[in-house]
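S1.2 Input.
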Amino acid sequence: MRLTSLISVFALILAGCSSNVDSHKYYKFTIDSNDSKPSTSVIKPRVYIDTISILGAANQLALIQYIDKSRVNIANFHYWAEHPEHMLAQATNTYLTNEGFNSIPLAFAGDDVEQYVTLKIVINEFAGHFSEGAILRGNWYLYQRNKRNKVLLNSSSFSLSNPLDNDGFDALVMAHRNNWQSLMTAITNNLRQIEKQID
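S1.3 Output.
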């Protein structure tokens, strides 16, 4: 009896160790700018990235899908490879740098931030949706610091949706990427207008 129990426990451990337990999938995206890499010899306008905040259920590693107005699905095995706020901040920094801006996180700013533009993005919805595909909604703000105050230069709300090319999480991540690319294009256009006004 004891030998049978020992063999059964050993068989269970062996079966557990040999099964595929890594069914989790991790996703990340980056975005490219339309321009080629800017020259390093040209003086680039400085833009500080303040924060990219995600409010609500999407502020977590698991991917989110809205079923209807009052129900949300949180993926069990599909996660962002890093917190989405960090991923989007990195994508924003890379995009603005490739567009010719000297993009710097505000946390690394020196004392001379008053003469430069600062970007803040607040995201209210960052999820998949049964009928709309990937949705991205929120507000962005461009401001300039004046002594201890912030002077708002421009702001806008955004509401983007992008249908999925296929079923599945890979298509959802690609649609999220396309939404972020559209948002970055709009923000870059506004930064260029402000740059002309400041010069």
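S1.4 Remarks. Strands lie at 25-27, 46-54, 62-68, 71-80, 102-105, 117-129, 133-146, 149-162.
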